[in-house]
Structures are given as structure tokens and as C-alpha cells.
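Entry for the shared binder. Reason: the reviewer on the internal report wants the predicted structure included alongside the sequence.
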Amino acid sequence: MTRNLLSTTLFALLAGTAAHAQIVLDVVAWKGNEAEPAGMPQLIEKFEAEHPEITVDLTFVARKDIDKVIPPRLQSGNPPDVTMVDSALNKLWGEAGFLTDLGTDADWVQRMKPEVREVLELDGAMLTQPLEIIGMGNFVNMDLLAQAGIQTPPVTLDELTAACGALAEQGISPMIFSGGFSAMLFVGANGIDPAAGNAAALGAGDDRFVEDASFNQALDRVRALVDAQCFDPELQAGLDPWATAPQEFRSGNVAILPQGAWNIGSFQQVEGLNFQFAPMPSGFSDKGVALDLVGPGWAIPRDAEHADAARAWVDFFAKPENLAIFLQAENAYSPYEGAETQMPELAASYTAARDAGSAILWPFSTLEFPKALQPEWEDSLTGFLLNLDDPNEDTLQRWDDAVEDSL
């Protein structure tokens, strides 16, 4: 009798402990560290309050390291419960069968912008919940522009060349134009027609860069910027676009910096830095062109240990009020229809260009351009800045060769 009572009591205690065992949700992301908090501390606290049975264990892994860290876990059947992916990883891991189909019936899938859904949907399966669209354009120091008598960010080519001349006359360095990134943004904004949509055919090798009138003209426009004293091409060619260039803008040493909106937060922390984020001046539009990058999203690996908790995480970010926290921290746009803009007023001209339809989805983020083309763009444009007298064909042929090699 005593033995049976003890056995029953022990079983009840063990069962109660098991019933209340805390689920540890293993989440891997390249957001959420000190440099890019992305609102994650607040969001995790809110998620755990709504799901007291779940504790989130967020591991930060830089994007450049994700390709090394996650594949062994996917292949061994011991993946994280949730992992951050971008369009390239969505395709690579999705086609390999490592990601769970999240389905297409969910409300967030129905609300997704068609152009984003087209990028992420694979053979009728939705493997990734997108989180953001982030802009790339020009950061403009408004105090330096004011010293040259300019009150608004330049959004047309004529305004840009006029601003460069006025700034140079005042002894102010007009513009950063590093071959590794800045030049690529300007050339893309002047080579990719938002209306014609020429990127896919060029990236597939159906059309050729060397024969494309827009890209030939884009390189000519770089020469026009040099003639307008926007920058010294030899000084800019090898400039580090990720460290030196932002620091030059942060320090108030240059008026215009082509870069991504992910810098807004850090620039806002600089006391006295009065800046705006504007679209890239382009011959295609008098409003400038917004260069939108399809950002990361959440995916649930096929062998996730806590699949139900992972679904709860995805459902949590599907709520507009939760995603808004992420977007506001990231200074990014929503990939869903009908969402309120979380961008600050300093990005008003960029938002206006988007609202007017003067925008492109950056073709490296949509996979219209092959991955191998990006480093070729960067290297060849650096060479172009050092040899402006060489024919456009020398640069554009390298892009066609990179596309051909990737087919």
C-alpha cells in the first residue's frame, strides 16, 4: 500500500515536471546584437510574456558566417528551431529540402507584396517569412549643403551636378564614390530602368550589358560627375565603402554618401549631424530612384526540434504591431501591403520616390543578377574609376562574362 502510494506520488511529480518543462527556442539571426539590435530585446521580452512556456535563446551569427555555421547543422539533423535567411539562402536551402513549407494560406502570405512573394515562393511553397525591405540611396549632410546655398537633397542628375559644383566652390568635399559600393549604387540606379525592367534579361544572359544603352549611358554619367567636381576618381576608387566612407560622412567631412538605410540609426547618434536620406539621382526619374533591397526573413528548418514553438515565433512576427517594432529599429519598409511606414521624416524624399513608383528591387537581392556578378561589378567599377578614358565595353564585357560563367 505504501509502495503503491509512493509510486503514484512520484509519477505525479514527474508528470507535473514534464508538463511544465520550459521550451528553449533556438533562434539564429544576423540581427539582435549591440550593433544591430533590430528591436530584438523588446520583441523577445514581448514574445516570452505572451508565451510563458517558451524561452528564446537568440544566437547572433554574422551574415558572412551563416553559410559556414548553419549548413552542418542542417545536414546533421540538428538545426536551430528558427534561422534567419535571405533570398539566396531561401533558394539554396529550400531547393535542398532543408526548410519547412510555411504554407500559402496564412494571412501574412496573402498580404505580402507581390514582387516580394515572387522572389521567395519556390514551386508553390512559401519557405520564408520576410521581415523588411531596406532602402539604398544618398545620405546628404544638410548643413554642408546649406553652406553652398542648397536647401533640399539633390534627386535629379542636374541637381546633383549643380550641387557638386557649388559645394566644391565652397571648399567642401561633395561626394563619396567608392568603387566597391557607391559606384555600384549610382550605376545601378542609372542602368536599371524601373519602367522597362531590363534586369532579368541581363542577368539571364538574354540581353548583353555591352549592348545595353542604359548601362552605357550610366557609365558616361559617372564621367559627368567627375567633370562636375563631385569627386576625384583616383582617390575614391580604392576607398573602403564599409568603414572609411561612413566615417567620413559621420565626421562631417563630405556632403553626400551613397549607402544603405541601415546606417540611419548610427548616424542619428552623432551629435550635430543634420542629414537626410534621399533616393539616388537618375536619368529615369525627376524624383530620383529608390533602390530597395529585399531583406532577411525567418525560416523553420525541416528538422526543427520545437516546430510548434517556431510556428508561434513566425505568427508573432506576422502581427503588424510586432513587425513595426522591428521595422522602426531597422529604419526599413514593410514587405506587406497596407502597412504603415515606420521610416523617420528624414527619409521623406526616399519614401516619396517609392510612393511614386520610382523604385527598383535591387536585382542581387531578387536573384535576377547572379551572385558572381556582384564582386565583378565592384572590381570592374574600381578599375573604371582609374581608367575613365577606356571604352565602356571594357567594363561591361566583364559583366557579360560573369553572367555567362554563372549559367
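Summary line for the report: The radius of gyration is 24 Å.
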